[in-house]
Amino acid sequence: MRIDLHTHSTASDGTDTPAELVRNAAAQGLDVVALTDHDTTRGHAEAIAALAELSTGLTLVTGAELSCRLDGVSMHMLAYLFDPEDAALLAERELVRDDRVPRAKGMIAKLNDLGVPVTWEQVARIAGDGSVGRPHIASALVDLGVVDTVSDAFTENWLADGARAYVPKHETDPFEAIRLVKAAGGVTVFAHPAAVKRGRTVPETSIAKLAEAGLDGIEVDHMDHDPATRDRLRALAADLGLLTTGSSDYHGSRKTCVLGEYTTDPEIYGEITRRATGAFPVPGAGGGRA
Asked: What's the pTM?
């Protein structure tokens, strides 16, 4: 079984629509794919509808990637199979999303002060119906020839945490995120916890505290973790009793990763589905193999 538990669509900052993402996942031979857009579940309905039209055995896991911050360090929490209508979790996601537009406009203003002629109209056009975020601004910088790739925009010169054009946004306390997701019947996995290329990372002592608070797992096999880092995280997870996942963090053409580049062990996936009570994996019309 090939299981990819971290992908994005145009509902946030990916370039595939939710329907395209599901079809591409099936074409790549995946058995399970999770749609985890940033702070939103808006793409789920379209993905489920597209899945119903497929004759393959692809299974869809619904989820989201929640924007969190701990002791001044930005981090992302993958939440799986929670009740999307849970009032408290929905209110927190909306609070985060509502802060995205003024934050983006603030970063655009800083870029303008640095001599970069990016406009809100340009960024909004790139974002389309998605929740606007730094990757959309990074794409605008690529279009303007300021940087060569989206990843090149996430440096201290431009959009990384604390960089010249960085503006903070509302982000959820991860302990509160765990509490909210658990209350909504979901499962939590700390996304790319050692992605040092993105800036400061949460120390392992804090991961231990998150585990004590109910964190279910950490994402180990990821494009931003080198082999030594993966080995270290796997050992940490074993010490803390955490699940370990692997995922592509697919964003379509916005990033170089491909669907199924890294995958999750079927036994781990099975444990995630056993722990979840807020929602259930959605099998395709061909019959789920998960």
From this structure: 0.86
